[in-house]
Amino acid sequence: MLQGKWLPIVLIVLLGLLQYRLWFGKNSIPDYYNRKQEVHTQALQNANLAQRNALLKADISDLKIGLEAIEERARNELGLIKKGETFYRILPADSK
Predict the structure, then answer these.
(1) Tell me: the pLDDT tens digits for 38-60?
(2) Which ranges does the record list as Cytoplasmic topological domains (predicted)?
């Protein structure tokens, strides 16, 4: 008669321990959802970096191919002009 009482108690305790580990232990369900969110965030960052890398590769190939890209960069970033060109600087009107 004593054996019949212990088996359900042991099974309930084991079920409780497994449930505790499932919800609160290491690698639990909340940990899974946190990791899933981290993976999603990292995937977005990777996509942004891949797009940036593609733009940089396009710039590199433009610079390797012709002088037009180099000339454009010199004009935009360094403010250089060619011989015979006239430089005009347009200032915005002061709003008083």
Answers:
(1) 999 999 999 999 999 999 998 88
(2) 1-6
Q: Cβ distance 32 to 23 under 8 Å?
A: no
Helix or strand or coil: residue 9? helix
Contact 52, 58 (CB under 8 A): no
Give start and end residues of each alpha helix (H) in 25-95. 29-65, 67-78
Please state the pTM of the whole predicted model. Answer: 0.51
Domain spans of the chain, in order of start: 28-79
**DSSP secondary structure code for residue 93 in this structure:** P
Question: Which tokens go with 56?
Answer: 């940089």
Average pLDDT value for the chain: 85
